[in-house]
Amino acid sequence: MSLETPLHRVEGLGSSHSGVSHFWRERVSGAALIPLGIWFAVSILGLAGGHYVSVLTFFSRPLNGILMAAFVVISLYHLVLGLQMVIDDYVHSPGGKVVLMLAARAFALACGALSLYALLEIARVF
């Protein structure tokens, strides 16, 4: 005998109704960051000690610019997902949760917009 309601058994959702999708979004974004992180680390190590112009030339190439944009966007998305978990687990006041969630998303949006704008400017100049 189960204590679940029939509707709950049919839908198969957890208490917040979004836990599984959040779990998979976190895992998929983390998996996407593995090759992008390796590319980023190798690129930065290759550019170490280089001149300012060589770094700008590197990021002005279409493939490198697209990979950097993907790295920034996916990293920030993964960051917001992780911060959401921390806020949900450790902030107990509903008002505090809302404020911190909005602040985390605003921060990620601002960082993403500035980073993508910088990449577009690099591509335009070079």
Can you characterise this structure?
With 126 residues, this protein is mostly helical. It has one domain (31-125): 3 helical TM bundles of succinate and fumarate reductases (Up-down Bundle). It has helices at residues 6-11, 19-47, 52-60, 62-90, 94-125. Helix 2 crosses helix 4, helix 3 (52-60) crosses helix 5 and helix 4 runs antiparallel to helix 5. It is elongated, with a radius of gyration of 20 Å.
Summarize the structure.
The chain is mostly helical. It has five helices and no strands. The mean pLDDT is 90.
Summing up helix and strand content along with how strands pair, one would put the structural category as: mainly alpha
Total number of β-strand segments? 0
Number of separate domains: 1
Termini separation comes to 69 Å
Largest sheet, in brief, is: none
CATH class: Mainly Alpha
The sequence of SSEs as H and E is HHHHH
Sheet-strand content, in percent, reads under 5%
Overall 3D shape: elongated
Mean pLDDT: 90
Architecture (CATH level 2) name: Up-down Bundle
Which stretches are low in confidence, meaning pLDDT under 50 for 5 or more residues running? Answer: none
Query: What is the helix fraction of residues, given as a range?
Result: over 70%
Q: Which helices and strands occur, and which strands form pairs?
A:
Layout: H1 6-11, H2 19-47, H3 52-60, H4 62-90, H5 94-125
